[in-house]
Amino acid sequence: MRRYPIHSVFVLMMILAVALLVATVTVRDTSAQGGRRAPGTGEIEIITTVDPAAGIDPTATVPAGFSWRVLAVQAPLLTPAAAANRQAQLVVHDGMAANVLFMSDSPSNQAASLTRRYVAGAGLGRLDEGINAATKQWSFPDGVVVLAGYRVRIATTAIDAGDNWTAMLLLVERFRP
Known about the structure:
Blueprint: H1 6-24, E1 43-48, E2 59-61, E3 67-78, E4 87-93, E5 100-105, E6 115-121, E7 127-128, E8 135-137, E9 145-146, E10 151-157, E11 164-165, E12 169-175
Parallel strand pairs: 6-8
Antiparallel strand pairs: 1-12, 2-10, 3-6, 3-9, 3-11, 3-12, 4-5, 4-10, 7-8
């Protein structure tokens, strides 16, 4: 019997889950409703943010005329040799940092000279070394609907000028409110 590393099995399960989700999402004719769709009947889309400059946290803003139900988020962080522990938070707010709708801390700090991938999925809890030692999992509730102008972002405590987040990927159900 051939054995596969646990992270390979997990990745395969996530791919199958997304494929099943895409296959089961129904898009109905909503012309009688003015072109609007209710949550659960939208289009599945992968959003890729701009790759931010070193020392800058990634942010995704919901475009005007749409809402998102966030299904999954992932982004890797590379920290240079500068000594400091970073704490990465996944934050959803209405465009004003003072009006936070949801926030999840990473399960542990990230030290210098490491690369870690941060992930979140609807309904998943916090888990250190979620898939493997290089992955950290934020908690994220199921069914979070983010309105136009709202932001999904990462906020890094003690971010260094050399810290490098790459582009953040979001799997969302996009619909018109």
